[in-house]
């Protein structure tokens, strides 16, 4: 029996869990003699501390974003080279070693930086572990990830691979471009011509966060017939009730959706999405080839994602001080831009070397896999003059 240990962080339904769950489902659908365990290391190490941190985390970044940015920039993703502070190592290193001894995994998959950091420290001190894979869930690598003693790296794109090679001196043969892993149900939408009214999906993530209130003021009013909106409120019950009380005919609130099939159907029915730049949501919608408009970004990792994705022109940044309908019109009325965006997405997907679960099979069981094939629906030469 092959044992694979997946290590996310916190019990909040974040992308770290979503990515781990997607890989576990894909592996479980193909191998019967495989045992996959997913353990939130923070809860394992200290349940009380994890609960306290979890309960304050979302409130913190929502009410005091500047302090979150300062801590993130100075301790997690510094703009200049700094040494890791080791005050938390003393508490958690022994716990991590105990977890690995208890689980005895044949392969370890880290979908969050802190478990990776700790295992890297353990291996640096001479403690042997099973092979370790870092699966990066954002479009950058923060400084907390362990890298020196990690065996394999699953990265979002070729640029991140190049950065790990040049900045961290990692052997290129240990780095695989898998994209940010998503569930296999998120296949490209069937090509069809959009018709009025355009249906726009709005997402604030599982917590229903972001500058949603500001966005609502920028949305078209009742008289606007070109757009209808479905708003994913996540677990933000107050937001859901507030939207329902407005009774707007062109705005439908949706409570937390746990079913990936239901979410996939919503993607299929939409003509575009307005969202925050969370790594997993962006990856899902890129695989669906759904035009992406960003309404806001939480401080820290989402802001860095946004900057990177904007540079690659894979997303459109909304100005909430300007009517949203006019900004959507600029895209939907410009056939050239739609084709160019599709080409950029096709180019991104075509550079993915393999799916994460396929590479895990290859590494763990020696089963060779073929690269995924993404059919390019539009070629740059087809852009009308």
From TrEMBL:
Domain of life (superkingdom): Bacteria
Location in the cell: Membrane
Residues in Glycosyl transferase family 28 C-terminal domain copies: 200-292
Diacylglycerol glucosyltransferase N-terminal domain boundaries: 16-182
Presence of the UniProt keyword Amino-acid biosynthesis in the record: no
Pfam families from the UniProt entry: Glyco_tran_28_C (PF04101), MGDG_synth (PF06925)
Keyword Amino-acid biosynthesis: no
Keywords of this entry: Glycosyltransferase, Transferase
Family from the record: Belongs to the glycosyltransferase 28 family.
Protein name: Monogalactosyldiacylglycerol synthase
